[in-house]
Amino acid sequence: MSAIRKILIAVKNPDAPRQPGIDKAVHIAKRLGASVELFNAISTPVFLDLEPLNGHTVAEIRREALALRRARLEKLAARARKRGVKATSTVEWDFPPHEAIVRRAHHCGADLIVAECHEGRRLKPWLMHLTDWELLRISPLPVLLLKNTRLWRAPTILAAVDPSHAHAKPVKLDAAIVAQAVSLTRALGGSVELMHANFPAGFGFAVGDPAIDAMTLAATYDQQKERSRKEFEAFANKARIPRASRQLVDSDPLFAIPHLARKLGADLVVMGAVSRSGIKRVFIGNTAERVLDDLPCDVLVIKPAHSAPRTIGKPRGMRVIAPQPLIPMTG
């Protein structure tokens, strides 16, 4: 895993009076010796039928909005530079936000994307939360989602792996997860805890099948768990993780990862994600996305090596919406 030298900080709202998420990202960058670029995408559409009311052309609206956002973002970058972090700022008209972030990260040569996680679905509209999910899905770069404003000081880092590949993760992804966790620990201090949720995939589908008797099912389940345990131990030995820092949990990862993170008081969970689409995504899902709401701490999501970016290209620019024709009323 290569070192993190440049971080793209996705700024949700440059107008906010307080920016604890940016402060935390800058703090992390300083500890890592990395530079940062603060980025904001203006994705709000402009309606052509408003032009006659405010007296501004679309081009003027575009220039004024860019100038205003750039000035505000530059103030935040200047504050980062005062803290000893090399910082730049960029504002672009582009949409949707998650694609704009990935495009900018690719073009500026970032090694990591940092974004503040939207609040859980109980507090925010599901469409807002979808931005986090889509960012995880399409980004080929590691994505650090900040779930709280607590600064990392000798952080406890929980690396969640699946050496048995029961949940369809590529073989090399676990090694990348541990390498990133260890690299962060060396730079930041703290400790690494390695975990595996020993929950054989597909077991639930066999329950209730009249063609499989209970004794055969239990024996098969125990064999799968024992094989998974041995694979976890072999992986941990190869990664040189001390036995006291190994956590083998007999539970579904959807519940095990958030529960263990709370139990350990973890500051960060590092886990892998594989982009899926269509019917496969519906049935298999994505563990990183599905545990996102329940995690009490920040989460760093790693993609398999050589993941191809899906949104390469130039920014889409301003989204201009033409006035809709009036439908005549009929009696």
Describe this structure in words.
- This protein is α/β, with parallel strands linked by helices and 331 residues long.
- It folds into two domains: 1-142 and 309-321, 3-Layer(aba) Sandwich (Rossmann fold); 148-302, Rossmann fold, CATH 3.40.50.12370.
- It is 41% helix and 18% strand.
- The protein has eleven helices and twelve strands.
- The strands form two sheets. The chain has a ten-stranded mixed β-sheet, with helices on both faces.
- Helix 4 (97-108) runs parallel beside helix 5 (126-138).
- The longest helix has 25 residues, at 58-82.
Count of individual helical segments:
11
Structural category is alpha/beta
Radius of gyration (Å): 23 Å
Most strands sheet: 10 strands, mixed
Beta-strand fraction estimate: 15-25%
Termini separation: 69 Å
Task: Give the CATH class of the largest domain.
Answer: Alpha Beta
The largest sheet has its strands arranged as: 4-2-1-5-6-11-10-7-8-9
Judging by the overall fold, what is the CATH architecture of the largest domain?
3-Layer(aba) Sandwich
**Series of secondary-structure elements, N-terminal to C-terminal:** EHEEHHEHEHEEHEHHEHEHHEE
Number of DSSP strands?
12
Q: What name goes with the CATH superfamily of the largest domain? A: HUPs
For the structure shown, list the relevant keywords.
single chain, about 325 residues, alpha/beta, Rossmann fold, globular
